[in-house]
Design a protein that fits this description.
By secondary structure, the protein is an alpha+beta fold. Helices cover 23% and strands 41% of the residues.
Length: 185
């Protein structure tokens, strides 16, 4: 009986160790404004389904707004952003144009607008490298101009991966079972 308890204890320790080593995905959410008008939201993540060493970006335009393609479309500012690539077809590194605060900008070709963009910045490794996000938008907040440039105010939140939560639950069940068996003996 003691051998079974010892094996169970070792298994529980392995589960706890796996939990401690499981990397959590992290996300930084950006609200993107023209003046005080919210025109888009962006989620910048590492880990999870994003390739190791990359930053995944999803930008969704707010209702009544679109993201302008053609010329400077999206820009980032922050430390350690030099040398990044981008994996979205049709984007190229370019001039920041009307995005004044951003230092790394990407241009697209075309003359249309889209309601969302999803792409990956390669070689960045951490979302803390990004301190601001700029975007070329179209909508009522642009006033008499058909398009204008917007910028962000970041708020950070850690987002645990589903597998991390599963490991946590499994570990807790194992610990509770071990404690219960000790009290029964």
């Amino acid at each position: 009986m003691r051998i079974i308890h010892l094996k169970f204890s070792i298994l529980a320790l392995l589960v706890v160790a796996a939990l401690a080593m499981a990397p959590a995905a992290s996300a930084t959410n950006y609200n993107i404004f023209v003046g005080s008008t919210l025109v888009a939201n962006a989620s910048v993540t590492t880990g999870g389904s994003c390739a190791s060493g990359d930053i995944c970006v999803t930008i969704d335009a707010a209702s009544g707004y679109t993201i302008r393609e053609g010329g400077p479309t999206v820009g980032f500012s922050g430390t350690g952003l030099s040398g990044l690539g981008i994996s979205l077809t049709g984007f190229s590194s370019g001039a920041c144009g009307g995005m004044k605060a951003e230092s790394l900008c990407f241009d697209t070709t075309g003359s249309g607008t889209v309601s969302s963009l999803t792409f990956e910045l390669t070689g960045a490794g951490t979302t803390t490298a990004i301190t601001d996000l700029g975007l070329h938008v179209a909508g009522a907040a642009c006033g008499t101009s058909p398009t204008c440039f917007a910028s962000s105010s970041p708020t950070t939140s850690a987002v645990p991966e589903p597998s991390t939560l599963l490991f946590l639950g499994t570990g807790l069940i194992g610990i509770v079972s071990r404690v219960r068996s000790r009290f029964r003996s």
